[in-house]
Amino acid sequence: MKMKQLNPRSVRDQIYQVLKEEIMKFRLVPGEQISEKEISERYEVSRTPVREAFLQLSKEGLLEVYPQKGTRVSLIDLDLVEEARFMREKLEKAVAELACEDFPQEAMFKLEQNVKMQELSIAQKNYESLFELDEAFHQTIFEGCGKANVWAAIQQMNVPFQRIRFLRLAADFNWNTIHQQHAALTEAIRTKQKAKAKEIAEEHLQLVIVDKQMLIDEFPGYFKK
């Protein structure tokens, strides 16, 4: 697959985006070895943009680069998963309460449509689509409350949490539970039930705790010891 003929920075960005998606969606699995040579040949580009993409992915904790030894997809660090989950639980409970006070009609429409699209993704067993809708659902709540920058800040340490969430969906855990909680949270926001919205947000962000051991048992090689 040849990359479009663009400037070196654009090529680097393309390589970065492609590799990040492959890692996040477990097409490249934790612990798998990859090399600059392999990637540069696959996409018919020089090694320089590949090396730069590797370094960026390393900074984000998705690759482990060992000079003169090689590069591998990083294992999932459960301590980092818990830190991100803890942060999101606290912030999402707070923003759920804010949404019950004042939430734009346009944002409410987006939430309702998102929940309907989740039903379709579940019916089609499309976990990649469900993952994207899940992310968009939470982003819509933050943006509807005027907290888009808070959502952006969350992304700085959200990668380990996103990885285990995607794996959970791919392993077919709690799809209906996730959808039901999203639907219930949408209704709580619509009817301005602050206590209910906060409770649902907390339960939702604790699903990872419930599913974590099942994922470790099924994919033991994916997790950092």
From TrEMBL:
InterPro entries associated with the record:
GntR_C (IPR011711), TF_FadR/GntR_C (IPR008920), Tscrpt_reg_HTH_GntR (IPR000524), WH-like_DNA-bd_sf (IPR036388), WH_DNA-bd_sf (IPR036390)
PROSITE patterns cross-referenced by the UniProt entry = HTH_GNTR
Q: Which UniProt keywords apply?
A: DNA-binding, Transcription, Transcription regulation
Source taxon at top rank: Bacteria
In alphabetical order, the GO MF annotations are: DNA binding; DNA-binding transcription factor activity
Q: What Gene3D superfamilies has UniProt attached to this entry? A: GntR ligand-binding domain-like, Winged helix-like DNA-binding domain superfamily/Winged helix DNA-binding domain
Q: Which protein is depicted?
A: HTH-type transcriptional repressor RspR
* Annotated source species: Bacillus licheniformis
